[in-house]
Amino acid sequence: MHPSQSELLQLKNLGLASVNILHSIGIRTLEDLRRVGAVEAFISIRGRGINASRVLLYAIQGAILDTHWNDLDPDLKARLVDEVEELMAGKDDA
């Protein structure tokens, strides 16, 4: 196991499949994840043709905040979804 994989696996909400998906978009460390953010990471994942659900979006945000995804504030979850939808709509218009 690569050391960065081990680092990401220590975060809440992220299992091996999620870590492998993050690696596929160039995220290898918690620092990378924080720099990119949950919304951009999720959009990049979707952009690679990976059919990811909102739960992955929440899981990534929870990993950044060291919180179980199910414990995220409902308003935060709604804002994350809104941001994703706005940014993805903008990419469709481009």
Please tell me about this protein's structure.
The protein is an all-alpha fold and 94 residues long. The chain has a single domain, classed as Orthogonal Bundle (DNA polymerase, domain 1), CATH 1.10.150. The chain contains five helices and no strands. The chain has helices at 3-9, 16-24, 30-47, 54-65, 74-93. α3 packs across α5. The chain is globular and about 40 Å long. This is TfoX/Sxy family protein. Residues 5-83 form the TfoX C-terminal domain. It holds the Pfam family TfoX_C. InterPro entries: TfoX-like, TfoX_C.
Characteristics:
0% strand, TfoX-like, DNA polymerase, domain 1, TfoX/Sxy family protein, single chain, mainly alpha, 94 residues, TfoX_C
- Taking the alpha carbons of the first and last residues, their distance comes to 39 Å
Biggest sheet layout: none
Strand content: under 5%
Question: Helix tally?
Answer: 5
Structural class: mainly alpha
Overall 3D shape: globular
Would you state the CATH class? Mainly Alpha
Mean pLDDT, to the nearest integer, reads 92
What is the element string, with H for helices and E for strands? HHHHH
The CATH topology is: DNA polymerase, domain 1
Radius of gyration: 13 Å
CATH superfamily caption: 5' to 3' exonuclease, C-terminal subdomain
Low-confidence stretches: none
Task: State the share of residues found in helices, binned by percent.
Answer: over 70%
CATH architecture label name: Orthogonal Bundle
Number of E strands: 0
Q: How many domains would you count in the coordinates?
A: 1
